[in-house]
Amino acid sequence: MTGKRKLMWLVALGILASGNMWMIPAENIAEAAEGSSPTSIRLNDSYVRPDYVEVEKLRDTKQIIVITKKEMEEKGYKSISDVLKDQPSINVGATGWGQVDIRGQGSEQATRNIQVLVDGAPITTMVNHPLPNNYDYVPVEQIEKIEIIPGGGSVIYGSGAAGGVINITTNLRSLQKPQSSVTSEWNSDGYRSSLNYGTKAGEKMAVQAGYARLDRDLFFVNTFRKSNYVYGGFRYDADKSHSVAFRYSHLDEDSKFLQNVSRWKIDAYGHNYRPDKASDYLNGDRLLNTYNMSYNQNLGKKFKYSGDFFYTDGYYTNTKFFDGKMKTKSYGSRMRWDWNYSPRDSLLMGLDLFEQESHLKYKTSASGKLMDFNYDKTTEALYLLNKMKRGRLTYTQGVRREKLIWEFDKDGGTTARPIGGVDSSNRWNTAGELSVGYRYNKLGKLFLRYERGYTSPDGLQICDEVYSDRSKKVYAATSAQEERYDLWEMGLRDKWGASTVSVTLFASETNNELERPYFKGAYGWEYKTYNMYNTKRRGVETSLSQRLGKLRVQEGYTYLHGERNYTAQGRALMAAHGAGEIDFTNSGLKAVPKHKILLSADYKFNKQWSANAKYTFFGKYNNFIKEEDRHDDGNIVHSYGLLDLSFKFQQNKDLIWYGGVTNVLGKDYYEYDSAGGSFATLVPGAERTYFVGMNYKF
């Protein structure tokens, strides 16, 4: 059965599961669909209504960061990566090109311990080798809001939530209020523009469509990123009890860049560096088509159904490998039934059914063997999340049971010594959580939370490269187990005088972290996945905000610390293979800065003019794995600070002008540094940039 046919069956299943959508009497209809109650998911001067019922269930016992469309417009963000960099608990690019690290997962774990969704559809990369990827798939102009759940969420989101969840919501959820606008921005690196048009087609139908263009020069000469994004969608409200929304989007991107240039080359040539051969430039072309449908229905006064159905397909490339391309596809559904079985209690029941596919082809040289790797991951999961209120206390209990089916068909090796294999791995996993929240006054709340979660092997780790006999190497499914983590959190939200305060202390432990080392076996060198490490992470996340007349000040600080030891299996492996032991206990985790500080001040001169100043401090971090390298200064990535300034002019209720300067002081810094002195490879950070733009709503 093809992917699209499977998706049609899932949509039909979801609609049938919701009940007969045309037979519910109007007098039995409760208030609107999910997300209509004016509840806040964060303590702040503005209140945000949740678009996803599962997020609403977490808000009493979890800190959830919400970045709204208005905030993105006011701060002039140019990409999703820019939005994420502005969060104290998130680092973008520190562990490698485009990688997003939440709560200090580190260079080997960041890409696996994260869940990224667009309108409920998972877009997390299945395998990050040898083609890394980033998540700038949606222009910020087309985003309604971004919700970030730092750390945990396995009951609702399944594997890979140890670091956290990033839920990107486009205007799919807001199509009942169509908007028309035009945005244009010039900056010293290029320009971007977008057009959105929305209208009502009768009382029940709303239609929206738009286009966005980005043209940006990158750090080195002759490097660039150009993209076109188009979308269209509609929402139909049959009546107050049920609605359906559909959205299609297409991204086409063309780019050329240089990655991991040696330090001595940058010192000698700066951004004027040119490689000796034109073929050393990397291409970052990619394409993504998305189809999203959201269906909501009230089934009487106590029961609500919502379902998100999706289909995505596309590809991305970003290396100099000949014919290197990663094709991707995903399709499926996330369905929820929310039962308010008493005035104070509710039970959320969720069903996840989706499949993700990746097909990688590449050559390492013009005459080399064509590598042809196929991966397929099917997820089938059921979860329950119960929420009870007793006076000032709120309790939640959750459990998830998931079946994961990994399949692969790989053809690699060399022409002289080919390696092939077809195999599968069926895996059952269980996640659970317990939490309690206590509202000690009108605004103040404390919460305690425990979560037991898991992270499954990624596309590379699921496959061992081993000898079947003395003369033949094959790919076979690994026997390594899922990583299991325990997460403890304690948080506070309150308003003290002029300050709103949010503080979270967390501790997590993974006692069987995965690694895929290259060891010599009985017949030769092999890649095998092992549960090698016991890793602990500790941290504090703080956020404060004050409004003093025309001045608003925000402060954010995150402290992260990690340590790693061998499991019994890992220590036995190292002893058996005679390698020098690596002691992570004192070194901390690789590519995890201990400190990050964000300071921001907004001043509103009058009803039209306002200005912003923002300072970001990014702490130093270790980028070594052997204790003998501890005192080598080249293996420490040093701290840096960036200052940005911007302004906004509200000419009238429809027209806004804005502009500013990023990296005002012209600081030289690196988003990624492999360390190792003058031979380190680097990804330079952006130089000073000037920008000015306008947004007009009509």
Describe what you observe in this structure.
This protein has 698 residues and is mostly beta strands. The protein is built from eight helices and 39 strands. The strands form seven sheets. It has a 22-stranded antiparallel β-barrel. Strands 1-6-7-4-5 form a five-stranded mixed beta sheet. A three-stranded antiparallel beta sheet has the order 13-38-37. A hairpin with a 4-residue loop joins β31 (595-604) and β32 (609-618). The chain is globular, with a radius of gyration of 25 Å. The two termini are 45 Å apart. Mean pLDDT is 87; it is low at 19-49.
The pLDDT mean sits at: 87
The count of β-strands is: 39
Strand fraction equals over 45%
Alpha plus pi helix count: 8
**Inertia-based shape:** globular
Give the termini separation: 45 Å
Strand count, sense and barrel status of the largest sheet are:
22 strands, antiparallel, barrel
Helix proportion of residues, in percent? under 10%
- Specify the structural class: mainly beta
Using only C-alpha atoms, the radius of gyration works out to 25 Å
Poorly predicted parts = 19-49
Search tags:
698 residues, mainly beta, 8 helices
Question: Helices, strands, pairings?
Answer:
Layout: H1 3-17, H2 53-58, E1 65-68, H3 69-75, H4 80-85, E2 90-92, E3 100-102, E4 115-118, E5 121-122, E6 143-150, H5 154-157, E7 164-170, E8 181-187, E9 190-201, E10 205-217, E11 224-239, E12 242-257, E13 261-262, H6 263-269, E14 282-283, E15 286-298, E16 303-316, E17 322-342, E18 345-363, E19 371-390, E20 393-413, E21 418-439, E22 445-455, E23 463-469, E24 472-477, E25 483-496, E26 499-515, E27 518-520, E28 525-527, E29 530-548, E30 551-566, H7 568-577, H8 584-587, E31 595-604, E32 609-618, E33 621-622, E34 636-637, E35 640-650, E36 655-662, E37 670-673, E38 681-684, E39 689-697
Parallel strand pairs: 4-7
Antiparallel strand pairs: 1-6, 2-3, 4-5, 6-7, 8-9, 8-39, 9-10, 10-11, 11-12, 12-14, 12-15, 13-38, 15-16, 16-17, 17-18, 18-19, 19-20, 20-21, 21-22, 22-25, 23-24, 25-26, 26-29, 27-28, 29-30, 30-31, 31-32, 32-35, 33-34, 35-36, 36-39, 37-38
